[in-house]
Amino acid sequence: MTGTLLFQSISAPLSTVASGILAIAISQTAVLHFNARLLLTGFAIASVITNTGMTVYSIQVLVYIFGSNDIDRCYILTFSSSQCRDMRRLYSLGRCWLILSLFVIAIERTIATIWCRIYEKRNYHYIGLSLAVIQYALPFVLVYGVHSSDPQSRYLYCDNELTIAKKDYAGIVVCVIVLQMIAIVTFIALWSYNIARKRLSDNLQMQSLQTQYQLNENVTTTKTMIPLVALNAFMLSARIALLIFAYPSHYDPTTPKTKSFEEVVVYAHFSELQRSLTPISTFIAVVCFTKQNVHVRNSLRKLLMLGSPKNKVRPQNGVSNVQAVTNAYFSQLAKQWL
After folding, report:
1. 336 pLDDT higher than 50
2. What does the DSSP assignment read for 114-169?
3. Which Pfam families did the record assign (predicted)?
């Protein structure tokens, strides 16, 4: 398992930087609607937290492994439930935040689809702010509100499935599965619906410029989110498969048994392999964002000083930068469509 932890300690910081840059790029993409920009930035921040948590845990365990002698290592690498909870808390917070982000983005995109004729004209900031409160606050309640199964027990391996009370963890798993399934179905349905509606409006040529713009943004955003939801679904499926086939069912931290300890060793190995997919999925998410969304790609190029889009706009007196960019974008679309 040491090799897996070494991989995490190297890849997780890199993916933290990548997702942090993506978060900044999304927040600076003024062409995106305020609500979408706010929630997508939160999604990227969740990736930062997840990979930071993985970095902290992997480095901490590696320090315990290489910084202790053979005699003390066995004792040092057994943790109390409070230690395990603290070591895993940041990672758990990020994972919960990611899954919840997909759910609230699905809600926001559904509203944008229903109100596509007026969604761009009327900002509806209260919708984005309300969803952001759920997105940013609820993960803290879920992660900090669970309790350990036995505060006095010591564990050979820190994992939520072993340390959290089974009743609490079962409820969390059910909620995660439900939210994930809702997000998957919603994004696929929205993408299909917006594609059909955009084709119809193109054929009829009856939609206003802003409606065309909103439909195009709906298609782009939902198309971008589908692979991200699929990645999270794959991670969740791998975790569930791990619990079904490798969970140490005979393990009891209060009664040491050789057989149960062997089960924990096998489970720990596969559990860390599954978690090592997190940095990989983060890099894939960054690639999906930059490849599918031209606005985010332009912001990223500008942020990394790789060149900026042509026709850079300077805001006039009394006009905000966001409004100036939006007006310029609509002007370019008008020249293209009219």
Report:
1. no
2. HTTTTTTTS--HHHHHHHHHHHHHHHHHHHHH--BS-TT-EESS--HHHHB-HHHH
3. 7TM_GPCR_Srab
